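Is this the right way to post structure tokens for a design question? Let me know if I should format differently. Anyway, here goes:
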């Protein structure tokens, strides 16, 4: 049979063979006396808390940080259990496993007769009052509102909340209940947190360092109250503290070290057994013994045998069951075995046997409870809390509402407008003057009215006259070389050269094309050198250059009383089927930009709100009090939907009314799609917040998804220009089909019945569903 050292490493009896035969014999003799107590499932269920062979580690397989190492713990009903141990020994981890917020790697936990987290166990739930180590309160609430919030969560009515809060306020000497939590001192906040845990008079009170920052007098009154509520046997208290001596009033003390308990005993018994004058000395002695145990198990036993008398470990539950022994009990000296004693003692002399508690079966859930996704009183509290946290922070609320509309404003004023004042270098060898807008007979037809002979002169001047209407910053250069030099230095976007015989060559080319030579053809064209570095500008300039030529020829045809398009290129662009005659980038990008703004602001806001709650411990506390992930998400949705409605209306007004973006379709459906996209962003925010542990990783995730989604959504560049594989990825992203659907509605005027429109709605709804499911599952299963 293996023995265990106190660090959990297995030592066989052979390991101690080096010791003297008498020591080994002594060890064997003593072991024969070690008997396991009766410990059955039934008996465990009768304890307030029963932990068996708990093993918990953090970190990777390669580099594990073992926190609980075969730990056993028994908390009888109606007892005050002081959980002591050095900082970082794993008290909080153990408590969070007990309240069902973390999972053991192996081992069993029973809390109030059930497994934490199992249906009908009531844990997490109002049967537990949990005060975490962090303050875990809403700074924007007053003390009174904090009580109302936690009271509602626990299912209390307003009258009970009022009575209980007044009692708590006077017991804990809390300041004016109308004071905001954020303005309280650290100690005052802690007391409010304590009051919130106690308010609903739970069966099991779990307090993680409630007396930190509390003065000795108040600390005493807190302990008096704990003793008082546990006296009737209805309330069980587990309390961790660093003030070891205050746990003298506990019924049982668990001294934790190295992932297990050094002892689990009543304080008076501990002091007596270890012949110490204080609990601190007991802890020290046991720690020394445990350290020595690392070196040699046999010597510990010798020391223990020499120095202390080892009594029985009382376990009230053990007598309650007649079932056969199964061989493990609450640990003592980290040994996982107990010492049999005929004289069974109670845990503490003052310990009062528990009153009858409702059997776990009595708390069975109805089918309605099982399928009901949210509880009304939880939703009431959560929605109220979320709304208050926005309304109490007017600056933040204004920022949230004005941010999207200001972004839309900046988009509309900054994007899509025609670039003006681009420097264009003009070299006009047809003129000997530095005047760019040179003279020509604007209203005189250059065709002889009798002979119909063309006498085109100074066509460069005519052309530049029309070109100047589109681009005004024309700069004169005497030679092409000088103009090119300026272009190379970035002083000109285009170099435009007219040959000395430009008009003449143009005429020959038009009228005597049978005899024109290459030189003439060449001289009849405007020579263009363009700065192609900026594609948008290049496209616009090419269009201006070509269209100015057509403007000039059409005008000339007009004054010569010829069909206007006679001299123009024989391609005619009719009124567009959809959209504007002159395409406008603002119109093209508008739908994508509107949806992107709404989507990503929703991501940022919801993930930010949830992460803040989690980092302040509020989320954890809410979950322990029985609130579900679904309720948290739905309550956020309810409040954010109102905010999003305002955001959507303002953004659409800014785009379609203030900046007159094209709007030819069903504006109601446009609004619905925008809201749905914001909704989708909110649910993605939930995924980010549940997936990421820190603000930083959440920011990286949100940013990391932002750029690819924007680039692939077709809002900057048509998806038809992408590689086929990328196009497929693009289509399944949340913003792609919705952008296309939005554009089809506002520019093409299509209705919801059109496949290109309703597909955007369908894809968005699917994404909402996927995000919600993922975040609910993550909240449910992502425990430490
Ligand atoms: N989520 C986590 N991931 C990795 N390690 C963790 C995590 N939470 C806690 N730990 C580590 O587990 C150990 C036990 O932490 P825990 O908070 O349970 O200790 P504690 O006894 O409550 O300490 P204290 O008395 O200072 O509050 C510590 O070393 C801590 O760094």
């Amino acid at each position: 049979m293996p023995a265990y050292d106190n660090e959990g490493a297995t030592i066989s009896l052979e390991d101690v063979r080096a010791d003297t035969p008498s020591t080994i014999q002594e060890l064997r003799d003593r072991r024969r006396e070690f008997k396991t107590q009766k410990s059955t499932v039934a008996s465990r269920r009768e304890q307030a808390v029963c932990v068996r062979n708990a093993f918990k580690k953090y970190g990777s397989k390669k580099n594990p940080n073992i926190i609980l190492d075969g730990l056993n713990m028994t908390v009888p009903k109606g007892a005050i259990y002081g959980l002591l141990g050095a900082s970082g020994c794993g008290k909080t981890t153990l408590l969070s496993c007990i309240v069902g917020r973390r999972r053991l790697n192996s081992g069993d936990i029973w809390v109030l007769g059930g497994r934490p987290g199992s249906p009908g166990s009531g844990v997490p739930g109002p049967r537990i009052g949990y005060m975490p180590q962090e303050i875990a309160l809403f700074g924007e609430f007053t003390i009174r509102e904090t009580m109302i919030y936690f009271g509602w969560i626990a299912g209390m009515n307003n009258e009970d909340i009022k009575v209980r809060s007044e009692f708590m306020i006077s017991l804990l000497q809390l300041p004016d209940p109308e004071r905001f939590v954020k303005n309280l001192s650290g100690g005052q906040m802690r007391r409010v947190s304590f009051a919130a845990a106690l308010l609903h008079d739970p069966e099991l009170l779990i307090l993680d360092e409630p007396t930190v920052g509390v003065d000795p007098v108040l600390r005493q009154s807190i302990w008096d109250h704990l003793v008082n509520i546990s006296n009737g046997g209805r309330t069980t208290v587990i309390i961790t503290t660093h003030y070891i001596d205050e746990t003298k009033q506990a019924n049982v003390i668990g001294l934790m070290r190295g992932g297990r308990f050094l002892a689990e005993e009543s304080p008076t018994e501990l002091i007596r057994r270890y012949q110490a004058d204080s609990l601190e000395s007991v802890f020290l002695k046991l720690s020394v013994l445990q350290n020595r145990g690392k070196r040699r198990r046999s010597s510990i036993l010798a020391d223990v045998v020499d120095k202390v008398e080892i009594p029985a470990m009382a376990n009230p539950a053990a007598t309650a069951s007649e079932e056969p022994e199964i061989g493990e009990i609450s640990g003592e000296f980290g040994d996982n075995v107990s010492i049999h004693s005929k004289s069974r003692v109670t845990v503490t002399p003052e310990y009062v046997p528990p009153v009858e508690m409702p059997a776990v079966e009595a708390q069975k859930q109805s089918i309605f409870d099982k399928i009901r996704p949210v509880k009304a009183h939880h939703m009431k509290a959560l929605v109220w809390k979320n709304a208050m946290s926005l309304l109490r922070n007017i600056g933040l609320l204004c920022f949230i509402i004005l941010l999207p509309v200001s972004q839309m404003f900046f988009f509309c004023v900054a994007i899509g407008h025609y670039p003006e004042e681009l420097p264009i270098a003009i070299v006009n060898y047809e003129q000997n003057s530095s005047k760019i807008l040179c003279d020509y007979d604007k209203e005189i037809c250059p065709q002889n009215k009798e002979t119909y002979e063309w006498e085109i002169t100074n066509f460069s001047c005519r052309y530049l006259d029309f070109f100047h209407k589109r681009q005004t910053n024309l700069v004169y250069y005497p030679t092409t070389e000088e103009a090119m030099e300026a272009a190379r230095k970035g002083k000109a976007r285009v170099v435009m050269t007219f040959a000395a015989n430009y008009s003449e060559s143009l005429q020959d080319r038009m009228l005597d094309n049978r005899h024109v030579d290459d030189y003439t053809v060449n001289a009849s064209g405007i020579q263009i050198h363009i700065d192609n570095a900026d594609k948008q500008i290049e496209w616009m300039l090419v269009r201006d250059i070509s269209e100015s030529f057509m403007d000039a020829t059409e005008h000339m045809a007009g004054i010569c009383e010829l069909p206007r398009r006679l001299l123009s290129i024989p391609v005619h662009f009719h009124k567009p089927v959809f959209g504007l005659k002159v395409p406008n980038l603002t119109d093209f990008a508008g739908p994508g930009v509107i949806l992107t703004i709404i989507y990503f602001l929703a991501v940022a806001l919801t993930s930010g709100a949830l992460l803040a709650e989690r980092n302040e411990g509020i989320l954890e506390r809410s979950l322990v009090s029985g609130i579900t992930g679904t309720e948290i998400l739905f309550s956020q949705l309810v409040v954010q939907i109102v905010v999003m409605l305002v955001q959507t209306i303002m953004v659409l007004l800014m785009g379609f009314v203030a900046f007159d973006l094209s709007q030819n379709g069903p504006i109601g459906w446009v609004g619905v799609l925008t809201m749905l996209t914001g909704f989708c962003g909110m649910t993605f925010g939930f995924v980010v917040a549940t997936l990421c542990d820190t603000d930083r990783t959440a920011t990286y995730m949100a940013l990391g998804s932002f750029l690819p989604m924007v680039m692939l959504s077709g809002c900057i560049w048509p998806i038809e220009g992408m590689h086929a594989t990328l196009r497929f990825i693009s289509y399944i992203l949340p913003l792609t089909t919705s952008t296309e659907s939005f554009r089809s509605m506002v520019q093409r005027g299509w209705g919801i019945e059109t496949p290109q429109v309703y597909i955007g709605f369908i894809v968005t709804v699917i994404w909402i569903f996927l995000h919600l499911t993922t975040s609910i599952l993550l909240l449910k299963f992502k425990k430490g």
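Format looks fine. Someone answered above. Worth noting: Residues 1-20, 32-39, 296-362 have pLDDT under 50 and may be disordered. The domain at 3-127+202-351 is CATH 3.40.50.300 (Rossmann fold).
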